[in-house]
Amino acid sequence: DAKTTQPPSMDCAEGRAANLPCNHSTISGNEYVYWYRQIHSQGPQYIIHGLKNNETNEMASLIITEDRKSSTLILPHATLRDTAVYYCIVRRWGKLTFGQGTILTVHP
Amino acid sequence: GAVVSQHPSWVICKSGTSVKIECRSLDFQATTMFWYRQFPKQSLMLMATSNEGSKATYEQGVEKDKFLINHASLTLSTLTVTSAHPEDSSFYICSATPGLAANTGELFFGEGSRLTVL
User: Fold this and answer.
1) Contact B117, B83 (CB under 8 A)
2) How many angstroms separate the CA of residue B8 from the nearest CA in chain A?
3) What residues in A contact B93, CB-CB < 8 Å?
4) Which of A25, A108, B17, B116 has a CA between 20 and 30 Å from the CA of residue B105?
5) CA separation for the pair A2, B92 (Å, rounded)
6) Minimal Cα–Cα distance from A103 to chain B, Å?
7) Could you list the pLDDT tens digit for every one of the 118 residues in chain B?
8) Do B104 and A91 touch (CB under 8 A)?
């Protein structure tokens, strides 16, 4: 199983960049890294995904190391509404298997 | 983005009854849907993969006779919790993807359905 490892919690000041790390050392060559977030009692919200190149969209940037064993999700200007659980997932056989994620708390 | 809708959002039932939860893809055809459950303060646990027109594939430890999944059309999958008991109380979430499940493309999640069994 392409398990991921994330810190259980992180803090970030409002307006600053939030950098969320993820280790996925057993990832295989054709497996993508996905990031979702979940706000309490809601379904997960898609953020971004990538294979080996860095990706950017209106929500975030995804930086994947050259050996693909780790990645970082960057929220460039965190707001209070970005407080959530962030999940880094390696998609295998089409499925997303969630780990424990990182609780990101954005404070004023 | 694409929308996946679940119904009901929350349901309370008596122990021993069966409860059906619907998952609909509103603006795309979902060949594959996934069902998850989530207990308080825990992560999502994948229960099963549902492919339109075929039997669902259940994850290890998930009772297929307890959690009946039907994916009869390209826009609808249902999860029926049979003979529900208090330990089945949980947050049930579905996700859907256009086309066959692959390792790329976006999976869209529903808002979740909270089941409370008395």
Assistant:
1) no
2) 14
3) 43-44
4) A25
5) 24
6) 11
7) 678 999 999 999 999 999 999 999 998 888 889 999 999 999 999 999 998 888 899 999 999 999 999 988 999 999 999 999 999 999 999 999 876 556 667 889 999 999 999 9
8) yes
